[in-house]
Specification:
The chain is α+β, with helices and mostly antiparallel strands. The chain is 40% helix and 25% strand. The protein has three domains: 5-96, Tumour Suppressor Smad4, CATH 2.60.200; 105-158; 169-316, Alpha-Beta Plaits. A six-stranded antiparallel β-sheet has the order 2-1-11-10-7-8. A five-stranded mixed β-sheet has the order 4-3-5-6-9, with no helix packed on it. A five-stranded mixed β-sheet has the order 13-14-12-15-16, with helices on both faces. Helix 1 packs antiparallel against helix 2 (134-158) and helix 4 packs across helix 5. The longest helix is centred in the middle third of the chain and has 25 residues, at 134-158. It holds the Pfam family FHA. Residues 188-319 form the GGDEF domain. This is GGDEF domain-containing protein. GO terms for molecular function: diguanylate cyclase activity.
């Protein structure tokens, strides 16, 4: 008999694992009487139901306020396949048979602390179900909310680069695969920007590492503010920053790179008293390759070309190494 689980994912980390391998109907919501409790104001009391007949799964929205989404599409009733993404409120649910490559909280020190708060949150839910006194029940709900917020902060810290506030390399590696899979499945373009601070070693040697750190922070925030919320911006290593631009064709990615290049050159002098420039390489799926690794390699080659051509410019990857310069 196959084992199946419903994984509750928060910020890319599995926070709950619920067995759904037996035939039956499983209720999902924020009420105390459901099978999988999601304590969030965006989730209805009886939000959705998952039904398993021994062969297939069906997810059904129970007239919830904010809706149930499968792979980004709002549904009423839908068959659910392995690793389909179900969005309920701010949470992601995945149907899994044990093969999903997602981190569990115990993977890091922050994760272990996060897991403790998850366990504590579950205990609060269990206790709240047993309490009859309404005032005491409300107090437990308040404490439970504090624990949940603490767990979310720990989850964010686990995949955030502490210096820049951007996502870290580990989180980028995981989420870039997810974004690429989505792009390939939906037949959409996906672009990558590799961004490197020009003469960063010279900045450190001339002004000191403290100024170098400040420069990296400012550049990181200028890049982030130039991107959409749906874009993935991460510190790739050292002074190099990488951006994933979902649903973005090559020409538009080049424009984004050009805007970032201009803004950094204009604003860093005003903010830091030192003019800083960046070199940027861009590449796009599927125009430049059919795999994520290939696209990253192409963007890196374009960045190298930008450096060789004199820095402070944007280069779009082309097999013939044709350079596009921001004048």
């Amino acid at each position: 008999m196959n084992e199946y689980f419903l994984l509750l994912v928060d910020n890319g980390v599995v926070v709950k694992k619920f067995s759904v391998g037996k035939k039956g109907r499983y209720l999902i919501g924020r009420s105390d009487d459901v099978d999988l409790v999601i304590s969030s104001k965006d989730v209805s009391r009886h939000h959705a139901a998952l039904e398993y007949d021994g062969k297939r799964f069906i997810i059904e929205d129970l007239n919830s306020t904010n809706g149930t989404f499968v792979n980004g599409v709002r549904i009423k009733k839908e068959f659910l396949n392995l690793h389909d993404e179900v969005t309920i409120g701010d949470y992601l649910l995945l149907l899994d048979d044990g093969t999903a490559k997602l981190p569990y909280p115990e993977a890091t020190e922050l994760g272990r602390k996060g897991e403790e708060t998850v366990l504590l949150e579950n205990k609060f839910i269990s206790l709240r179900r047993k309490i009859k006194d309404s005032e005491l029940k409300e107090e437990f709900k308040k404490i439970e909310s504090v624990v949940k917020k603490s767990r979310k902060r720990l989850s964010v810290l686990a995949h955030e680069d502490r210096l820049t506030g951007l996502y870290n390399r580990q989180y980028f590696d995981k989420m870039s695969k997810k974004e690429f899979t989505e792009a390939k499945r939906n037949g959409r373009s996906l672009s990558v920007l590799f961004i490197d601070i020009d003469h960063f070693k010279k900045i450190n040697d001339t002004y000191g590492h403290s100024v170098g750190d400040d420069a990296l922070k400012v550049v990181a925030q200028l890049i982030k503010s130039s991107c959409r919320k749906s874009d993935l911006v991460a510190r790739y290593g050292g002074e190099e920053i990488v951006v994933i631009l979902p649903n973005t064709v090559s020409a538009d990615a080049f424009k984004v790179g050009r805007d970032i290049n201009r803004i950094i050159a204009e604003q860093t002098g005003k903010i830091l008293g030192i003019k800083i420039t960046v070199s940027i390489g861009t590449a796009t799926f599927p125009a430049d390759g059919g795999g994520l690794k290939k696209i990253l390699e192409c963007a890196d080659k374009a960045l190298y070309q930008a450096k060789r051509a004199g820095r402070n410019r944007v280069v779009k990857y082309e097999e013939r190494s044709q350079v596009h310069r921001e004048l």
